[in-house]
């Protein structure tokens, strides 16, 4: 078999993450926390319903099919390639170092922006919950800084306790939201139960255009399920556990969120589903309406823990990407490659958290209305960063699918199967074009979101320029590329299924 690690003269590593410390439960927690279905019930249901109306649960099912197909791509890759660099490694072994670099370039932008978004989300929600239940104003900026500090403490102590906490909180959130959803469904809401909400065949669905545009928002729900892939270096038996975690997280989210979203539609009434977005907090509103004010406290707390969970998962994901960059000694971030006494990426944690906290405050305070003590500007910044962070990741997902087909055909021919490595990735690629195009057509992106589009295009162009320059210096390109991928299992290449390919140096891959 042609080696995927042809050059072994890479720069020495400054640090190494603690290996074999995470089991299936930890990786599953990372994937579920990355999706954080509870926050989607809180914040995304109204957006989907504003386009797809009463068919919002059906649209979610469509989105889950796309993500299950992409989860299949990750699962198949993880059987042979297991690294902390995830998609960079996948794309590079399939399509070469130049395309791989562009994917890593986009990945850093996407995950970096979404990490900032999670701080804004927690700050907005905690501030609103505090003021709603006490009558006093607590500025969202203090809340965002508070969650950033909590994330840092757990990240420095180790990813293991952080993921254990996330799993416990996710279970408690699910219990609260499942109880609320069951009460709404049993009561029937103002218009009774409506099974047609699970289909496109009802008069309140916005038509084909509404369903397709709703799919754009529904895809946002599942962004984060792939974050388990960056734990390859720290996971026991990553070839098995990462694939299971990714697939299981999508399945759990599909059931939980479909049920929760159906309950929100029933609580509002199917004929009024398009107006659900006008309610500031549907879950809180329905808790008070169908159970009582006392239960709204539990719902609000579930929202707080859910927004913490997504911040923890997103930030830890970015810590590991930045650690890989620093470990290879490129882009002037050498110190981020060092680990602390607990073999956690301490310097990367402190560096990125400082940047993300400052950026979150700048975005939130800079969005209209400026200098407002409420959360209106913060929520606007949250919406902008959600949009800007999702676009580059969808592009990375699109590139990953054909990379699997090429990799299996060229490097793992003995295991190549059309039904496993051609058909699912091809269908997933076609379906992923829907949310990508849906952001720009049939209506153009409205200001100020269009500014982020131009910024991202500029970032992409800069990446292309860097690749063009680095083509003359293959060793340097290899070092930069290795910043997105770190080998989890040293040793010789293996041609047998279930053994990872060491991903160290891509400068000679064609």
Secondary-structure map:
Elements: H1 24-35, H2 37-43, H3 45-52, H4 56-78, H5 87-95, H6 97-134, H7 140-157, H8 159-187, H9 207-222, H10 238-268, H11 282-290, H12 293-327, H13 346-366, H14 376-411, H15 418-421, H16 423-438, H17 449-470, H18 474-482
Explain what the structure shows.
By secondary structure, the protein is mostly helical. 67% of the residues lie in helices and 0% in strands. It is built from 18 helices and no strands. Helix 7 (140-157) crosses helix 12, helix 7 runs antiparallel to helix 13 (346-366) and helix 9 crosses helix 16. The longest helix is centred in the first third of the chain and has 38 residues, at 97-134. It is globular and about 65 Å long. 55% of the residues are buried. Mean pLDDT is 80; it is low at 1-14 and 486-510.
């Amino acid at each position: 078999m042609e080696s995927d690690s042809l050059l072994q003269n890479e720069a020495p590593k400054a640090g190494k993450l603690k290996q074999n410390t995470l089991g299936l439960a930890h990786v599953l927690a990372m994937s579920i926390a990355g999706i954080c279905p509870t926050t989607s019930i809180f914040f995304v249901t109204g957006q989907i319903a504003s386009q797809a109306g009463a068919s919002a649960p059906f649209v979610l099912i469509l989105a889950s099919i796309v993500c299950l197909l992409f989860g299949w791509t990750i699962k198949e890759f993880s059987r042979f390639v297991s690294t902390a660099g995830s998609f960079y490694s996948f794309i590079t072994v399939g399509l070469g170092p130049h395309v791989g670099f562009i994917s890593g370039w986009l990945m850093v932008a996407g995950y970096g922006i979404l990490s900032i978004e999670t701080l804004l989300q927690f700050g907005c929600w905690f501030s609103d919950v505090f003021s709603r239940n006490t009558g006093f104003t607590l500025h969202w900026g203090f809340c965002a800084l508070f969650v950033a500090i909590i994330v840092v403490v757990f990240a420095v102590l180790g990813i293991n306790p952080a993921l254990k906490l996330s799993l416990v909180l996710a279970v408690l959130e699910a219990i609260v939201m499942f109880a609320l959803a069951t009460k709404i469904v049993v009561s029937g809401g103002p218009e009774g139960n409506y099974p047609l909400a699970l289909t496109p065949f009802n008069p309140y669905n916005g038509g084909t255009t509404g369903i397709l545009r709703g799919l754009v928002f529904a895809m946002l729900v599942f962004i984060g399920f792939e974050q388990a892939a960056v734990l390859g270096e720290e996971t026991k038996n990553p070839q098995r556990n990462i694939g299971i975690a990714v697939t299981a997280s999508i399945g759990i989210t599909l059931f939980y969120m479909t049920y929760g979203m159906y309950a929100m539609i029933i609580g509002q009434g199917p004929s009024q589903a398009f107006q659900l977005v006008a309610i500031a907090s549907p879950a809180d509103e329905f808790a008070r309406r169908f159970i009582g004010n006392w239960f709204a406290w539990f719902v609000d707390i579930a929202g707080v823990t859910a927004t913490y969970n997504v911040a923890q998962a997103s930030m830890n994901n970015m810590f590991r990407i930045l650690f890989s960059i620093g470990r290879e000694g490129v882009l002037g971030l050498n110190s981020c490659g060092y680990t602390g006494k607990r073999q956690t990426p301490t310097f990367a944690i402190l560096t990125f958290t400082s940047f993300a906290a400052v950026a979150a405050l700048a975005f939130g305070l800079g969005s209209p209305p400026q200098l407002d003590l409420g959360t209106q500007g913060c929520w606007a910044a949250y919406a902008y960063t959600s949009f800007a962070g999702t676009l580059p990741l969808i592009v990375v997902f699109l590139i990953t699918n054909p990379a699997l087909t090429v990799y299996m055909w060229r490097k793992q021919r003995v295991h190549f199967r059309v039904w496993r490595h051609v058909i699912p990735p091809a269908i997933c690629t076609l379906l992923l074009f829907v949310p990508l195009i849906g952001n720009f057509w049939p209506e153009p992106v409205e200001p100020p979101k269009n500014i982020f589009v131009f910024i991202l295009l500029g970032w992409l162009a800069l990446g292309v320029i860097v690749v063009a320059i680095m083509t003359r210096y293959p060793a340097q390109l290899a070092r930069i590329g290795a910043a997105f991928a770190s080998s989890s299992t040293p040793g010789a290449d293996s041609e047998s299924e279930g053994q990872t390919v060491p991903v160290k140096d891509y400068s000679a891959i064609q």
